[in-house]
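Many introductory courses stop at the sequence. We go one step further.
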Amino acid sequence: MKYKYTKYVPNLLDELDMDDLMSKLSDLLLSSGFGNPRDTGDDSDRTMQALHDAILEALFNGGVLPEDLLEKLFGDQAEGSEQQMRDQLEQLIQQIIERMKESGYITTPPDLEGEKARRAQGGGGDGEPGQVKFEVTDKALDFLGYRALRDLLGSSGHSSAGRHDTRDLSTGIEASGAPKPYEFGDTLNIDATATILNAVQRTAAEPKGSDPHDVVGAGLQTRPDGGIDIDYPDLMVAQGEYQSSCATVLMLDCSHSMILYGEDRFTPAKRVAMALSHLIRTQYPGDTLHAVLFHDSAEEIPLRELGRVRVGPYYTNTREGLRVARRILERQRKDMRQIVMITDGKPSALTQPDGRIYKNPFGLDPFVIGETLAEVSACAKAGIMINTFMLARDYDLVAFVRRVAAMCRGKAYFTTPYTLGEYVLMDYMDKKTKTIH
């Protein structure tokens, strides 16, 4: 049999870290409408041209392209013209896009011939270039959630996460506490060493010559087979750390203020939500997480849609968000039930009994605040804790948030989009050591 060998031609794509590149593209893939604040209802920032430009930015300014690869592309200008180098870079970007499609990170319409023709002409043509849209897949969102979780925990000095520990001990399978005498209702996780030791000490202390048929008085000397009689008081059970379960509703403020004032607060909030979802799914399978968006109104969304939600020109109906979250949590039978609310604005809307929305964006409306605090009180009566993560520091708003925390034994964190993830994840993992008694 004859073999035909060909010369190996290295591919520039082989030297790229695709996982790192995907992380650099997360702002585009999780776009919340920040780039187009006047019209947030479409996906104009998810065109192939936008993806092309984002990859180009990541290659040169994101540190994705190694220096030696840059040298290969642009180091020796004597061997090729500027146009040839530009064509080589364009080919690399197209290969990256194809690799993203083959890996299942994005999907595109089936016919891209027109787009390819426009790119071959340098963006020319009759139509506007780059208007072919792409869609982010569930696989890409799951990967971005994993990377966000890894980056957030790594920045906090935590390499891995365990279970929720509490101050209570239970007679479970995993022993980590001192043994205790068995009581009715305990799991029969017998500590053999402590139990036998109790029996030996008891029988050694009993007087010799006791009736061998008396079980209580039987000792080491009365068993013909040399065994040890163990009585009920001798039983000792091993204790394990009690690991509680938790039901959490993540409330995300998607009012228009989350992308105003020159800062995108909603994309970091989505990234934190996806990381928290990945943490619970992989490390705390006994816990539950639900997501609620609140704006003019409020609604629950599937967790898999977190990466796709966008802000809109809405007010902030905090009361309705709390009401939806409370109804979800009241159906949960968990040791802990909590609401994690991420917001940057004051309550400015209410849903009235007839379904109409009452709105007042100016200051803290007493009617809106009163109704919102009434819903906070209802959550407190239901045993639901509310932890608020604020992305703004207005004086009146700070006072309102602290009052919410005091009413339901929760906490108020005043943070920024850059530290939000660390606060949320650390609070979630440390919570139960402080609330289960």
